[in-house]
Structure formats: structure tokens, C-alpha cells
Amino acid sequence: MAFDIAMIKASYARLAERVEAARNLVGKPLTAAEKILYSHLWDGTATGTYTRGEDYVDFAPDRIACQDATAQMALLQFMQAGKAKVAVPTTVHCDHLIQAKEGASADLKSANNSSAEVFDFLQSVSNKYGIGFWKPGAGIIHQVVLENYAFPGGMMIGTDSHTVNAGGLGMLAIGVGGADAVDVMADMPWELKFPKLIGVKLTGKLNGWTAPKDVILKVAGILTVKGGTGAIIEYFGEGAESMSCTGKGTICNMGAEVGATTSTFGYDASMERYLRATDRDDVADAANEVKEHLTADPEVYQNPEAYFDQVIEIDLSTLSPHINGPFTPDLATPVAEMSEKAATNEWPIDVEWGLIGSCTNSSYEDLSRAASIAKQAVDKKLVTKAAFGINPGSEQVRYTAERDGLLDIFEDLDAKIFTNACGPCIGQWAREGADKQEKNSIIHSFNRNFSKRADGNPNTHAFVASPEMVAAVAISGRLDFNPITDTLVNQDGEEVRLEAPTGLELPPSGFDVEDNGYLAPEEDGSGVNVVVNSDSERLELLTPFAPWDGENLTGAKLLIKAHGKCTTDHISMAGPWLRYRGHLDNISNNCLIGAVNAFNQQTNFVKNQLTGEYGGVPDVQRAYKAAGIETVVVGDHNYGEGSSREHAAMEPRHLGVKVVLVKSFARIHETNLKKQGMLGITFANEADYDLIQEDDTFNFVDLGSFAAGKPLTIEVLHAEGSADKITANHTYNEAQIEWFKAGSALNLIKRQNSAA
């Protein structure tokens, strides 16, 4: 029996009418993504059409999912919204705050001790406001959502960029910041710029060593980390239909790494099989009644160029296994080319760790395929050269895999079975020796591989591949190992070859679990008391940001001019800093410490214009704040790429940064800045980035007439007395300008709820 089946059936009951109305208005057949968008309009049935990439649209998502690191700030904000209960089904999942070190049992015990305060807070807030709570160890948010909540044709938002995993079950699942989630929790419309559409036609069928992961590794190489920005990627074709539901989820999951709003597949037989296997016959039956509306109209897939803004075609039958990286997920290399490429770039050939799992590639199918390689290694008397780590996706997957002997196979290779949690993938990995910062290579089936991501070592070269490729490379201990052509020498001195992996889409004996880790909230949570200790280092109640005074911003100083890649990891690091996600002031001590200063190519070392001395970014910014001086951050292309974490917007705001001026933004981060009352703007002329000097002062000439579609003029005063005038563009609409005026979107929501 599915969660929230009444909500799902109600969604399907109105689907045909809304799709038909939208089709008539648009005047042509609709893609699967368009059907979901138009059937989730805040105002109900469509009365007009929207221009892709231009029009801001209000939507009504079906549900919300929050992971424990981002849930803290989201729920701290919701507590200020003046609501007694969340307006739509919402869940909290404890998966990020569990450090991988010793193994599942010890690590879970350690997390329950060290983060008890946070877990207790999240559980009590969930209980009070009608939110479903998944305990530590229950599983990784996106796998749990796929197993329990995702449904074809639904719309979900989640406070994690990899929320998009649910696209594997035919949803539009979109990563957002906590402030966006608060809007929906508080029964407000959720705003999104109507996305462009990228169609990916998959022909042929996967075979041999090639896996669903290789599809998105290939797509990442084509689109790059920003090529999907502002677009939904919709996969279709015979190749799509031939893949498993969890394989589709893997592809959608890593769509976050190309900047896509989300990715999805049309409903098909593999999704039905997965729904029934996960005890959701009622959802499958309901979906089958409206299945024509849960995928694109036939004309779309017959002539995709007429309906998508961009079309990519990939033949799965000829697709090669890929290894992407290091330091960026879009550096795609077919496995046959890795030997030459690694040598040319002087990447460390010896691989020290192979890591399998996390929110993608942690399904039963993934573990079974990787286990088939591991078993060959045991049977063929191979000595594994690299260490192994396994993160099952959920307790249900872990329990079933243990029952069926899959985990025993990995343990025969001395693999360490970590908790059903994120661990190394998000920097929660106490890797022995990482503090030495030695140059080394690791390989994993995760998505994100930015510098310092996994173990905190900037010299760890992390490569991304399918679970089966990770297993093969880890067994060989060499980055340049090609299992298709290369042999290995076993303990008897014999040359042996690994055969192509085999696996099972679903467990033959069905899924099983003793305790899935779910706690339902009380029906009436009014009596639940949420306590936050005033002296806590982990949690802090929020103080509203000050509203705009209506005046031009003048005398603002440059805090930092960031050079090159500046992701949310650079702006607000994860790893050890995750412990402060519920305490804005404490976590603000990591603000922009990973950004490279364009004037000295150093991190966390910027000039304090008040003293002329250099110091850490947070320290210098706190000095400006103490002096009552607002500041400007300048950045490069795709600023804020990566995670959905709104701390990357809240920290600068809290410390007194007023403006972020960049060449271009990643979607989620730009929205997060707007939500927190920041001014997120872009150079009209990208070359003006080069005009910014270390001692600059900024005067905003026409902020007093801030309006939608009207560029802003900035006078940049240089220390030697000269000045430049810069034009900056923005994407604020009138509603978003009201957020800026109010000091934050939350301030406006609170004001509206008080007036109601």
C-alpha cells in the first residue's frame, strides 16, 4: 500500500482534463514534461500558454522531501511562517550526518551520539508539523523516495539537488533551496521559470560492460556542467524502455551535474514492475488507467526535433563504458581512452579506493551487477588491489542484499559495508591518511567529484563510473584498466579475464525488511514542544533579515573576486561543516573559504580594505559588518553550481554581503539568493569582470527604481581615483522584487500569514 494514495488518485483524476486543456492551448502534441508542468499549475487547469526559458510560472507540487542537513534550515524557516501543519505531504530523511569510518554498526552508533541533538530536533519538528520522519540508517533520501513516494506524472520538490532521482519513476522531481520548500509547506505557490526541453533519444540496448550510468556520463560530456541549465531533460526511445526503473533513476540523478532543472522518463513497463515490487500495486493500477497521459504524445517521439529545444541521440548498443573526472563530473573519457589520457595529464594510475552506492547506483540491481564482478575476483583467485566501500541505498535494499548473499561477496574481498547513508559522497568520510594531502586516485559510482569533496584532500583525484566498472578498476588497482580487453594475474600467476557483469533488475524473492526506519507524525502535533537550547553549537533559531531601506546602495566594498569554478562546495563546504547546518552564525565561518581569490590565486585570503591587511574571508567580512559596510562578491561563470544548499546564500547574507555579481549563475543558487533578499545580478558585458580591482568600491546608481526587465547601473570606484560604469542584468520579476524589498521571501510569507 502506497503512502498518500488518496493524493495520487486525486492527481490522476484531474490529469486528463488538464492535459487536454493544455494541448488545445499549446496547439500541438505535448512532451511528458509539459504534461506534468501544465497539470500542476497553481491556478489549476491552464488558461494560457508559457514561453520556455522566459515566463515565471506558479506551480503546486504534490510533495516535499528534505534531507537532514538541509532540513534543519528549512524547518527553522518554516517555524517562522505561522503555520500549524505542512500543506502538502512532506518527509525528512536522516542520511547526511552519518560519517563513514569503521562500518555500518559503529558509524551509526557514533552518529546517533554525536548528532543526537539534531536528530531529536528534526524528529520533534516533524512530529509537530505533520511531517514523516525517516530515522538515521533508514536510507538515502532519494532511494527511499523512489521506493516509497515517487509516482508517474507527479511533481515533487526536495531540498537536495539530487531530488531528480525520482524522474526514474516518471516524476518531475526538482531540487530547491529550503526557502522554496517553505513556500509549499506554507500553502504558497512555488515559482519556477518555465523550463526549456532537451530530448535525449536512446536507441539500441545496453550490453556487456555498459550500464545506465554510462548514459549520463556520456550526456555530461556533451552538455558540460552548465549545458542543462534552465532545461528539463526527457529521455525516450527503445533504449529507454529497455532499461530498468532504477537504471532510469541513476540517469536522472546525475542530471543535476549538468545543471538540468530535472530529468524524466515517460511511464513504461519497467516502472510498473518496480511499483509492484515495492508494494505499490495500487499506484501501478491507478497509473495504468491514465498511462496515455504519463508519457509524451506519440507524435513527439516520432519527430522530436519539432518539440524539443535540443535533441541528443545515443545508440546504447555502441555506447562505451565511461570514466569521468577528475575534479569535474563532465570530463568524460571512454574506458579505452583512459590509459593515454591519464598519462598525458599525469593522473595517478594507482587507485586506492573503489566506492559503490550513495543516492545513485545503490539499488539492488546495482549491487547485484557489482557483486557479479566481485564474485569473479574471488573465484578466479584475484587479489584486490584497492580498498572497497559499499553504501546501500536503503535499509530495504541492504536487508534484501544481505539475505541474498550479495554483501557476503563484497566482504569476501574485505569490503567495508558502510551505513545506508551518504558518507563519502558528501564529504562525510573519515578516510585514514587524507590529512597528509597526498596525490592519489579513487574511483566511485557517485555523481559529484569536486576537489576536496569525498575526503577533504584537494589532491585526491576522484573518478566517476558505473558500479561494475568501479568494482573492476578497484580489483585491478589501476585507473587505466580496461576490463573489456585487459587481463589480470591471479595468485597462481595465471592471466585471467573478468567477464561482463550480470545482475538482476529486481530480487527474485522480492524485497524484504524488518524495520524500514519510518516514524509517522502525530495526527495533532499542537502539544509537541520543540526545544532549541540557546547555548547550542548545532542549532540556532533564526533572526529575520532586515528589509531593504529603499535607497541606492553606495559605498559597498569588494569582499572577494572569485576566479574560475566556484561551486556551492566552495561557498559553503560540506564535510565537517555539516554539523553546523542548523546554526547559521557558526556555519558562516566557512563562507567562501574555498573560493579562489582572483588577485592572488589563494583561497580564504582576501584584503581588508579597512586595514590593508589580508585575512580569511569570513573574518574580513565580519569586520566590514561590524563597521556597518555592505559588500559585493564578484564571480565567474556558473557561480553556485552543485548542491541545492541554501547556506551558500544565507551565509553571505547573514554576514552582510548585499550583492553577488557574476558572469552567470547556476539555477538553484540564483533562486536561493533571491529568496534570502540578496541582489543576484550578472554582467551585461562579461568582459567587465576584468575591470574589477582589489580595492574597489561600488555605488548602485539606480537601485531605487529596481524593476523587472530593467538593467542596473553600477559605478565602480577604483583606489587610484578612476571609475568605470558597469551595466548589470537580472532576472527578478515583480514578485521576486517584493522578496528583496521585504528582506527575504520568508519575511513576506510571515507578513502575509499574519494579515490572513
Q: The biggest beta sheet, please?
A: 7 strands, mixed, barrel
Please give the CATH architecture of the largest domain.
Answer: 2-Layer Sandwich
Instruction: Kindly report how far apart the N and C termini lie.
Output: 37 Å
Q: Uncertain runs with pLDDT below 50, 5 residues or more?
A: none
The DSSP helix count reads 26
The number of distinct β-strands equals 30
Query: What does the radius of gyration come to?
Result: 25 Å
| Tally of individual domains | 3
- The structural class is alpha/beta
The CATH class label of the largest domain is: Alpha Beta
Q: Choose one word for the global shape.
A: globular
Spell out the CATH superfamily of the largest domain. Aconitase, domain 3
Oligomeric state as shown: single chain
CATH topology of the largest domain: Aconitase, domain 3
Percent helix: 25-40%
* Order of neighbouring strands in the sheet with most strands: 22-25-26-27-30-29-28
In round numbers, the mean pLDDT is 96
Binned strand content: 15-25%
